[in-house]
Amino acid sequence: MFDFSIWTNWIDQFLRTNLPEFWALAIEFVVVGVIILALYCIIALALIYFERKICAFFQCRLGPNRVGPYGIFQSVADMLKMLIKEIIPINHTDKFLFYLAPFFVLIASILAFGAIPWGNGLQILDFNIGIFYILSVSSLGVIGILLAGWASNNKYSMIGAMRSGAQLISYELSAGLALMTIVVLSGSMQLSTMIEGQKDCWYLFQGHIPAVIAFIIYLIAGHAETNRGPFDLPEAESELAAGYHTEYSGLQFGFFYLAEYLNMFIIASIAATVFLGGWMPFHVTGLDGFNAVMDYIPSVIWFFGKVVFLMMLSLWVRWTFPRLRIDHLLDLEWKYLLPINMVNLLVMVIVVIYGWYF
Amino acid sequence: MAEQIIFYVLAIVIVVFSILSVSSKRILRSATYLLFVLLATAGLYLLMGYQFLFGVQISVYAGGIMVLYIFSILLTSHAGDKAKSVSWKRLLLAGIAAIAGLAVCGHIIFHNVYKVVEAVAAEPTMQEIGKAMMGTEKNQYLLPFEAISVLLLACIIGGIMIARKR
Q1: What is the mean pLDDT of the segment spanning A108-127?
Q2: Do the Cβ atoms of A143 and B59 come within 8 Å?
């Protein structure tokens, strides 16, 4: 496996030998920040195209096919349209909170985005508390949604925000507990250590039954956290116009839109990292020739392959199931997922104590 | 130097938004300013290298308690609501009480801070925190201790309820 940290260390050494430490650090901060923001936007554009095409195929349509070959520049054109649209000010609202709310949603998802391991040696934030960091910063997004709904001074936005708040807070519990199940198995919260621990066998197979249950629960809870169908009742257009972002226009709506797509990506990449080994290739103990062939595929391709696979699952679910009602949604979480999850955590602890894992 | 610049930025944010959160007339704005104070405090923890404390600060205060505050404000007040302005006598009294509190707390912190700094020199790893929570040796037993504190809180609330019923 090619270790990308050779390149990054070389750049770091080069800057430190030629510049005083303060300026070397300042340049690195700026460069890393620009890379994160650029990746964020590019991935969002790619995801929008991907989703529109896939959902067109699900509905036996062609999807975007006018701008560029197979419509691949459609989302770039949409981005330009979004950038030059007017931001319409609304009367009788709390202006400060109204303009602040989209930033909360966006910043929460950028912060979580920064901790994703992209490939061997390509990780920006590698904290000791890895997974806990991602869970805690992504909980900030709820505040942005609640503020957006309240500051719009509109009953549809308000109801959308309340629904969304209830939904996000409930499903965060399940997502967190499902990840904790795997933390019990790996004995670490640091993402790089967790990926290293999946060298011989991914955690999904290492932890067999409890890990598979945790994986399914995490996919359901993560899907609900991104506010997408069948859990899209905060923005159910038949009842609530567009939910909490009804009053937003132009780039402010764009922020919500970006954050929604990137949250889908972040959920998929956390699931890929924790359950499917992140950038770690598929290895089978004993088959050394097979493992060596798998190592030739670059780590970044492994990571993106797994993420795209999980996002395909997410889109498939989105276009397969009808929207839930709010009481059914909360029942699903509190009466089914959470108890199953707690029992599952205990099962995993027993499995780890008696060493019944691979 | 970079650390000092970040420290001063965070300190200014904490001071300014603390004052704004008690002086704002709109309750949801106060809650938002308080949220900024909590986030900047989390930033200070990160600056000191206490990553676990940073995560807990964000998820418990910003993600948990502030969401609870905002939810309760959303359910109880209207968009146009404003607090009544307070008479200058009460402002003066509140100011004196605040300065007295600051003086007492500042005195205690200033004379005791060095003892605490020696006690927690390096950041504990996740494994150490877990052992401190669940272990049964000296300086451990944290989780049972917390459970007892919750029990005590329930007892206090129950006691108040029984006393009020009469």
Answers
A1: 85
A2: no
Contact A146 B74 (CB under 8 A): yes
What amino acid occupies position A120?
Answer: N
Query: Is the predicted pLDDT of residue A236 greater than 70, yes or no?
Result: no
Whether residue A189 contacts residue A129, with contact meaning beta carbons closer than 8 Å, is answered with yes
User: Which residues of chain B make contact with A127, given a CB cutoff of 8 A?
Assistant: 51, 55
Rounded distance, CA A10 to CA A14, Å?
6
Q: Residues B10-25: pLDDT tens digits?
A: 999 999 999 888 888 8
Please indicate whether, in this complex, the C-beta atoms of B35 and A143 are within 8 angstroms of each other. Answer: yes
Q: Which residue of A has its CA nearest to B2?
A: A22
The whole model's pTM is what?
Answer: 0.86
CB contact under 8 A, B58 and A140: yes
What would the 3-class secondary structure string for chain A be? CCCCHHHHHHHHHHHHHHCCHHHHHHHHHHHHHHHHHHHHHHHHHHHHHHHHHHHHHHCCCCCCCCCCHHHCCHHHHHHHHHHHCCCCCCCCCCHHHHHHHHHHHHHHHHHHHCCCCCECCECCCCCCCHHHHHHHHHCCHHHHHHHHHHHCCCHHHHHHHHHHHHHHHHHHHHHHHHHHHHHHHHCCCCHHHHHHHCCCCCHHHHCHHHHHHHHHHHHHHHHHHCCCCCCCHHHCHHHHCCHHHCCCCHHHHHHHHHHHHHHHHHHHHHHHHHHCCCCCCCCCCCCHHHHHHHHHCCHHHHHHHHHHHHHHHHHHHHCCCCCCCHHHHHHHHHHHHHHHHHHHHHHHHHHHHHCCCC
Q: What is the pLDDT of chain A when averaged over all its residues? A: 85
User: What are the b/e assignments for B7-28, b being 16+ CB within 10 Å?
Assistant: eeebeebbeebeebbeebebbb
| Alpha carbon A125 to chain centroid, angstroms | 16
A83 CB contacts (<8 Å, ≥6 apart)? Answer: A251, A254
Of B28, B56, B71, the CB nearest to A97: B28
Band of pLDDT at residue B105, cut at 50, 70 and 90: very high
Q: Which two tokens stand for residue A325?
A: 């009602």
Is the complex ipTM more than 0.95?
A: no
Closest residue to A132, CB basis, from B29, B55, B80? B55
* A343 pLDDT more than 90: yes
- Cβ contact (<8 Å) for B32 and A25? no
A22, A133, A183, A190: best mutation site toward chain B, by most B Cβ within 10 Å? A133
> Which residues does chain B have within 8 Å of residue A96's beta carbon, measured at their own beta carbons?
29
What are the residues of chain A with a beta carbon less than 8 Å away from any beta carbon of chain B? 22, 25-26, 92-94, 96-97, 100, 127-129, 132-133, 135-137, 139-140, 142-143, 146-147, 149-151, 153, 158, 161-162, 165, 169, 187-190
The residue in chain B having the minimum alpha-carbon distance to the alpha carbon of residue A187 is B127
